[in-house]
Structure formats: C-alpha cells, structure tokens
Write a structure and sequence with these properties.
Arc Repressor Mutant, subunit A; D-Maltodextrin-Binding Protein, domain 2; 3 domains; two-stranded antiparallel sheet; 16% strand; LysR family transcriptional regulator; transcription regulation; LysR_subst-bd; LysR_HTH_N
Length: 234
C-alpha cells in the first residue's frame, strides 16, 4: 500500500532528481528517502527512477506515477487547508434534519448548544419523516439528521446518541390498573392511538402491538406525540 508520506517523498525526488537535495528538502536522511522509494518501486513492481553516475531520471512508469501523485497531493493539500479552518467550518450554515416526533423535545436544546458553541452558525431545520430525511441526506439537501435507529442504508454513517424507552400514555383514572413497568401482554386488551403513516415511531409501536396482539384504534392517528397525549387525556 502506498502512503501519503511516500508520495511526498517521491514527489520531492521527482522534482529535484537528486537524492541528497530531496532528502534535505524533506528534512530526512538520504538512506530513509532511498528506503521509501525502494518500497514504492517494490509495490509497483519495477523502477520508478533511473540511477546513474550522471544523475537520477524518471522511468516511463515513474513519469506516470508523478502525474497521478501530483493530483493526489494537490487534493490532500486542499483537505489539509480545510482542516486549518477549524471552527470556521461550523461558522456558516448547518442544514439539520430531524424526525417530527422528537423535534419539539430535542430542537430547543440542540439549537441552544449550537448557538453557544458556534455563535455565527446559521441553522436550517428540516422537520420530516425518516424516509424523506434519508433521501435528503443521500442527495445532499441536508448535512445531517436525527432519526430513529436502525436504518438500512450502507451509504449513511450513523452514530447512536441515546436510547429512548417506550412509554404508555393513558388517562390518570386508568393508570392504577396496570403494573409498572407495563408487561407487553397487558396491551392485548388495549386499543392504541399511534402516530400516522410514515413515522418511524409508528412502525416500532406497531411491532410491539403485533407481539402483544394489541390493535390500533380505528380511524385515529396523530401527527405528533403531543397530539396523542391530548387525545388520551381528553
């Protein structure tokens, strides 16, 4: 495998065509430079430089490697220049997606912390369901998203933020008849109000209902957890 360091050594030698001058430019010993070039030549299966008493010159293979190495090092340089920006990368705009079911509970704290850490950051919030947010991530419409795991998309990197337990909401008058925590089997006789189609929390709740052999209350679905709580308490 070729390393960035080896490419830099190769580039210096291809420019100076002199092991001593290249080693001095790189601030390394000449034997160290020779060893790295030898490793590259072993990797490519042939010499990249002609060594002669009159000097050093590139072979035809070496000339091809020089062109590609220059492009790679230029791109690495661009990445390194981004790194030197530090916090300035987060001083412009962040396009954040978040599922609607948790947005009212998480967004205030998220925006507050971002505001403290990056005062000049502009946040653009997109509140939607998981499938749409993942599609927006894939097409670059948003930079990151808060969604429920797991998601089956190998092209998206995920980081678990926290575990959120399920809670059963029911009228105060009914609460005393169920044990705490509520056994799944106890849901068998219940009719549940869930989030509407498209919400990942609905799919997870339906899986619990399937295990418990419970059913959804016909014709009743909500767009937010707050609405569900109001419907239950009313």
């Amino acid at each position: 495998m070729i390393t960035i360091r080896q490419l830099r050594y190769f580039h210096a030698l291809s420019q100076t065509l002199h092991f001593g001058r290249a080693a001095k430019q790189l601030n390394i010993s000449q034997p160290a430079l020779s060893a790295q070039i030898a490793q590259m030549e072993a990797f490519f299966g042939g010499p990249l430089f002609n060594r002669a008493a009159s000097g050093v010159s590139l072979t035809s293979d070496g000339a091809l490697v020089r062109e590609r190495a220059a492009r790679i090092l230029a791109e690495v340089g661009e990445l390194e220049s981004l790194a030197t920006l530090g916090d300035r990368l987060l001083s412009r705009r962040l396009r954040l997606g978040i599922i609607a079911s948790v947005a009212p509970y998480l967004l205030p704290a998220i925006l507050r912390e971002l505001g403290h850490a990056y005062p000049t950051l502009e946040c653009e919030i997109r509140e939607s369901v998981t499938d749409r947010l993942l599609a927006d991530l894939a097409t670059g419409r948003i930079d990151c998203a808060v969604v429920a795991l797991p998601i089956e998309n190998p092209g998206i990197e995920t980081i678990a933020l926290f575990d959120d337990p399920f809670h059963l909401a029911l009228p105060v008058a009914e609460a005393s008849r169920l044990a705490v925590p509520v056994p799944i089997a106890a849901l068998r006789q219940e009719r549940l109000i869930l989030l509407e189609e498209g919400h990942c929390l609905r799919a997870q709740a339906l899986e619990i209902c399937r295990i418990a052999d419970a059913g959804e209350m016909a014709g009743l679905a909500a767009t937010s957890l707050t609405t569900i709580l109001r419907m239950v308490s009313g």
